[in-house]
Design a protein that fits this description.
It contains twelve helices and 17 strands. By secondary structure, it is an alpha+beta fold.
Amino acid sequence: MNLSKLKFGSTIGIIGGGQLGKMMAQSAQQMGYKVIVLDPNSSCPCQYVANEFINAAYDDQIALDRLGALSDVITYEFENISANQLQALASKYNIPQGYQAIQLLQDRLTEKQTLQDSGSNIAPFLQLTDYDDLVKAVDSIGYPFIVKTRFGGYDGKGQVLVKDATHLDEARQLIQAQECVAEQYLNLSKEVSLTVTIGTNNQITYFPLQENEHQNQILFKTIVPARVQDNKEQEARNEVNKIIKAIHFIGTFTVELFIDQQNQLYVNEIAPRPHNSGHYSIEACEYSQFDTHIKAITGQQLPQQVTLLKPAIMMNLLGRDLDLLEDQFAEHPEWHVHIYGKNERKFNRKMGHLTVLTNDINETEQKLLKQFEGR
């Protein structure tokens, strides 16, 4: 896909004003672009840095048309906008990312089927519409398996780990609320992710393979480069290349992958926008995932490769972490602290992140873990 390069001073419209939108806006403004953001939350983080703020619901057609009319290009920071609404918007305004990725990926069943058709290595899965299907999952997949809702859900919401028959009733209740997908639970050795940007003329820029650790289904820390065998990064790229052939992408997206105890790599999920595990790139790389995203959607040439300037550890800061660490920020100049600007501090809500560049990942990791011990 060829995109005409936007001139300095052009306006980028962002659907969604959370922390991803805020960091997109900061990259865009650094490159000389103006930013308009649309979000229903009157105190969303991005509105504090945007040139203009449209406070409206994501399905407000009048507001979306206003955003389109004022923008030279439109992007989005999350995947829960209606695919049909995005398709209608893309027919009238410049949305290089299109609607196809959102249409495929906001439905977990369609995502799994698309990955399977692409030849990607994924864990066995089964569509669940009723309790009978749940029984079939026990027979065909076997314990343990995870039941996830087809639509919505993030950071562990909308899913149940079925370890044995005692968890079937909880899974049944989830299926009664909406259709689900059951997928085999893998005994993992590592969780990793690969952030990629696709630009004009099918340019592809890869970020380093990222090693992730979750706590209670929320990303706790990311370590780069991932501490895996050297061939795993190329294996991850090979899986991403299969996905690129099956799904239209422009801009930055991230593929989450699992490595099991047998050292087998599996594709887990795709985030069709910048991702939490790529935040380290702001300080640790010559271009951040937000920089390359803005370059892609504005038609600029992408760097042939992104260089990791120094190994890095990124730690998410939840509400409870701010309670624990806020007084220590000033004592640690080596911490690059990002506070997103959310008004309501909740115990398990993502409020920011910090990144540390280091020559000794393992030593720095242990020091940081001690700081987070009271979590």
